[in-house]
Design a protein that fits this description.
Two copies of one chain form a homodimer. Chain A has 413 residues and is an alpha/beta fold. Helix content of chain A is 32%, strand content 19%. Chains A, B: Keywords: Hydrolase. Chains A, B: GO terms for molecular function: phosphonoacetate hydrolase activity.
């Protein structure tokens, strides 16, 4: 098969692909500690070889450190301020509605995947959760499906209709290790069948929400990831991997969830009428109870933002509070989809709305979550040696959403 | 020899030591990436075994992420707000003097080392740089010396007078890998000679300031550290290790230092008269040019703190600005030794005072430094399995200055 090496540009970044398959993986929720533990126990031999031959370092993700925010950044190469996806939900003040942002109609930037397809690459996007598929495959000619809905993919809508035959297994349960492994297996099958030469494989973080890095379940999971990684490398792919966010335990010493209910706090201190949006909220709440370390506040009286912000920042467990303008600049947020205040919490603290908004009984085990500053730094892994320019770039303030740039442009001479 | 198992208390924390040697190491400047690289290339087999049998995780250091701040925290078990050491320098407004804080007279907390000695442990403190010795050995009965001044240690002042004979090598140059390795070798010699059973070994970060994690020089350095670690473990020690701070490249794409001169910026915008303190400044500037990612500002007119703080936070490269009260609370600073404003910069940016205050020509190679938020998270390594209580503690918001607590109390049943 011939692989297109035509260059293409998306959002001002030009990509000059080699005549080799490109595979980028988003290891959802992979705090660096997961790799550390699995490598220490010799459970990721292919990753180890990849690090020896290529690159491993830390990069800064987009905030809030949530899945769809960072996946959107990865496939566009730009920050949320540009692509507009800053959570699963935002509050549209003009419409007085809480709006779900899981559709491509909310995406304000083109994707490099669409541009690659237009340049002749055979592009495939495989995600664990269906919620990401629409955004990631926006305007893209190629294959795009989720593990979750693999059984119902059709040529007309997904560019493929035989996913289960291709992978040799039925669509997995979404709350499982297999939901992620299926994505990697599908990627391998597409690559080996010659049906794709430019792949984005986006996993899900059910396992990381549920198990700590050193748990046997985590080690087995990463060993299985490593097996698929080895297959991708054996097939001649240039592989880049990063994470959308890290993961930390958000628990009190007794193991119970360490939650601050921000709307309740504001109601009690300043009177009712403010609205707290938890942008981690989505239809899949079993593993985190819609609790993360980043919330957006819409005040009843926005003229009191400075006063209320100061009060919030004085509450133990809250570590950062920004007004809208500062959140736009420092946190790279789209001004019309953030709030009067943006609030982040400590490494072991999550922020909720009110107790009634969160079903903690849905949590299977202790609460592990993300969204804040302490899940911002994530690994960057590249299978091939970086050239001098990208070694310098990696030593600066490289971002997880530079992963396609590093994988494509960083490995050429 | 018999080892005391009497419990002791320092700053409200009780330590119940086992009848085994306790060795805590501060791997100065060891961003986790240094361990990752050395482990990936199989250069730290003893550390790998230690991780398999014990614990490796990430912990939050004290801010500013400087050496003496975090060393002071490690030996006291408390934050800078309590022990008072918040940099190498502070500005004493009452005296109108810039005061160096390298003496124990500035320490406001007792050390757990002194308490251990009082409980019958044979305590030894070995540091690379002389500047730390006075603080770390405050009120302590035992051995305390630096590699830098090893040749001049005397029984009366250091509890030892034969350091070079003991280690079999002369005192090393301070800007060298040997400055750190000498500390570990001395620790091993003291342990094996039965002259100490409770050791704190504090290295120096010249190598990390100079070399990136994957540099051959770094790999060789960490391999040599690993050799000493193996000796300590073979001698039966329970070993805990952490870092005082991480390390990041602070460079522009062309490799030149990425510096913002804060006093110059303030002079230009608000008129002369404000004073910027770079608390990284010390007599050893060759490797960082007194440039870090954290400065303290004393304003000519403190009533303008809010206005000037907002302006500073709007400057690209500056990521956090706090007034005094907020710095005291969120950054755990002593109120009387911080400024009207505390300013932190981005992962790849350092803050200076004015160009005249910094000799960039003294930098041997590209600038790598620390002091800010992106050097806050550091590894915690414990040679023995953690008990259930400390596994939960590790999964919370554990601190690098809990390292003695983890090493002593975390490994018992």
């Amino acid at each position: 098969m011939s692989i297109s090496t035509l260059s293409f540009t998306a959002n001002g970044i030009t990509y000059q692909p080699p005549a080799a398959p490109i595979v980028v993986i988003c290891l959802d929720g992979s705090a660096d500690e997961y790799l550390d533990a699995s490598l220490a126990f010799d459970r990721m031999p292919h990753l180890k070889k990849m690090i020896q031959q290529g690159y491993r370092g830390m990069v800064r993700g987009a905030l809030p450190s949530f899945t769809n925010v960072n996946n959107s950044s990865i496939v566009t190469g730009v920050a949320p301020a540009v692509h507009g996806i800053c959570g699963n939900f935002f509050y549209d003040a003009a419409l007085d509605q809480e709006v779900m942002m899981n559709a491509a109609s909310y995406l304000r930037a083109e994707t490099l995947l669409a541009a690659a397809a237009n340049a002749g690459r055979k592009v495939a996007v495989v995600t664990a959760k269906e919620k990401l598929r629409d955004i990631l495959s926006h305007n893209m000619q190629g294959i795009a499906f989720s593990a979750e809905k693999a059984a119902t993919a059709t040529i007309a809508t997904h560019g493929i209709d035989d996913v289960e035959q291709l992978t040799g297994q039925p669509a997995p349960a979404i709350y499982s290790a297999d939901a992620s492994l299926f994505v990697l297996r599908a990627g391998n099958a597409l690559l080996r069948a010659g049906r794709a030469d430019f792949l984005y494989l986006s996993l899900t973080d059910f396992m990381q929400h549920t198990y700590a890095p050193e748990a046997p379940e985590s080690l087995d999971f990463y060993a299985a990831i490593d097996h698929e990684l080895g297959q991708l490398l054996a097939a001649g792919a240039i592989v880049g991997a990063t994470a959308d966010h890290g993961m930390n335990a958000k628990q009190l010493p007794d193991g119970s969830p360490n939650v601050m209910y921000v709307e309740t706090l504001l109601d009690e201190q300043f009177g009712k009428g403010s609205r707290v949006i938890c942008p981690i909220t989505d239809p899949y709440v079993k593993h985190h109870g819609a609790l993360g370390s980043y919330v957006v506040v819409h005040l009843k009286d926005a003229s009191r933002a400075a006063e209320i912000g100061r009060w919030l920042l004085a509450q133990p467990g809250i570590t950062e509070v920004y007004d809208r303008d500062t959140a736009v600049r420092l946190l790279e947020q789209p001004a019309d989809r953030t709030g009067d205040l943006v609030v982040l919490s400590a490494r072991n603290v999550v922020l909720g709305r009110t107790p009634a908004h969160h079903d903690l009984s849905a949590l299977d085990s202790g609460l592990r979550s993300h969204g804040g500053r302490y899940e911002e730094m994530v690994p960057l892994l590249i299978s091939h040696p970086l050239n001098a320019i990208y070694m310098r770039k990696a030593a600066g303030d490289a971002r997880n959403f530079d992963v396609f740039d590093f994988t494509i442009n960083g490995t050429g001479q």
